[in-house]
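Office hours follow-up: a student asked to see two folded examples consecutively, so here they are.
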Amino acid sequence: MMKFAWDSYTKYAWGGNELRPISKKIHNSGIFGSLSLGASIIDGIDTLYIMGLQEEYKKGRDWIATSFNFDGSTEVSVFEANIRFLGGLLSAYALTGDQMFKEKAISVGNKLLPAFNTPTGIPQSMINLKTGSTRNWGWASGGCSILAEFGSVHLEFIYLTNISGNPIFEQKVLKIRETLRQLERPQGLYPIYLNPRTGKWGQHHFSVGAMGDSFYEYLLKVWLYTGKKDLIARQMYDEAITNIESKLLQTSPGGFKYLAEYKSGRIDHKMDHLACFAGGMFALGANGSSDPAKYIQLGEDIATTCHASYNRSVTKLGPEAFRFEGQTEAKAMRQNEKYYILRPEVVETYFYMWRFTKNKKYRDWGWEAILALEKYCRTEGGFTGIKDVYVQSPAQDDVQQSFFLAETLKYLYLLFSDDSLLPLDMWVFNTEAHPFPIQNSNAVKPIS
């Protein structure tokens, strides 16, 4: 599947950000700006390497060396640039030791620094790579920055300081954390909007799905990345999870555990596909928690709920969001929530649950997802998302997302691989599934 997706991208969209597999041409999404920055190459390069696809890896590596630069006149998402481009380059460097990746990573990191020039140190969402001018999304609660975005720079920037020797990157992310620690949190929760100028929260909307998700993941993973030395990160994680459990974790009449959202003073009984990563996160955080068995079980419970969202669809692929209302459980109820865009979060949780429990059902569930992807998302020219998981012949969206190469196929591959490939005591994955070596773990290259 990876070779087919990569070969299709190579054939029809080489150098572009993503592939339109049906139109057989380049897809340039707004998050990457207007330029062709090779997002699929940089996002997919470590997957190729891990899978031993050496010829394909070399082609991607050579393009990055000769054609990738991050200084054109375009505006990109700081968050996406960080997790996909910086994360992909750092991971490629970690796996191969190739200095070229390190140099490119440092250049990307430097380009992102102006976004942090705010009174609070909370970065803005968008940056112009040529001018360094920054702004926030107009729709984001009166000029606010977004929790998942500014809270998911930590891992990459600390690693970048460690390999470059330049303290500026680590300083920037520690400043974000200090700002957050000083703020009072309504009900102990982190709202998804924060104003980078005033340091005040925007509207009180809490979510472990879209716009909240990877903030929590990074608190845990920074603790892991530092060899469990960053105790502040772990403390912030534990406090956040305790409040999520008491305020957002719900149990449906049918017994499904799910992570609801809280907005405008009430619980919204909706769970995003994006929030399905949390099953793996709970399991990953079990070691070091006050009750390891409880968090492994919570991981299992979330995995079961997210599998149900797949199993209750005609295609056996899960919707973008699903609800628990009345007689409806683990199903999308609104047309704009019924699509599937090749997302990885459910199979990501299967991967972690397999590693921690060795329960064969996680591999069975992963195989179900593989068969569904092959049946409904594979086209003559690559893989596409679909617009309605509940119909037998769904319309296709004609986009092969770069994260399909970076995450979905990587987690599926790792689910069926031996534990010695990227062992979890030596490697930690960023939110785009790019593995970084845990400090002082003697992480070795998985493939020579």
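And the second, which I mentioned at the end of office hours:
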Amino acid sequence: MAKEENEADSEEQSLLLMMITDSESQNNEIWYIDSGCSNHMTGHRDWLVNFDAMKKSKVRFVDDRVIQAEGEGNVAVRRLDGRQAMFTYVLYVLGMKSNLISMSQLLENGFSMKMSNGSLEVYDTAKKMIVKALLARIRTFKVNLNTIEPQCLSAVTLSDESWLWHLRLGHLNFKDLSLLR
């Protein structure tokens, strides 16, 4: 296959954690897997779970600009098999237009990677492939991750013991429950 055909095809193949996208897409869920990036980063505060605003840090760019990371959290994504995967220790950088996945941070957290034939495969700590990205025309590894919006859950404590027994006994009605006393 000619090099030009291979580069054109790389934008159209589906990946494990992404949907098909073209280079003109303005989709905010596009992430770039970056070997020069020290941390995962996003400009989307609403994607971050377990966000800690106290974990501020400085981010230095290649042109020597320094900006403030406003905190750190985790980003949940939906895999093609419907299950959830989590990117941890993602920096929130206000105003950041691109989302970055740090190859070095993945390696530091026990992930492994394999590059061959114009593709990058990322494996989790259980050696299961979680991302396969093809080298795009602009020489980047770009994936479109389906982020999962954080869900707020609440817990309720029961102070009435009759409710506890109601639940323990398979939702026995309260009249019969009172006969057991």
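Two things to take away from it. The first strand starts at residue 30 and ends at 34. The CA atoms of residues 59 and 67 lie 5 Å apart.
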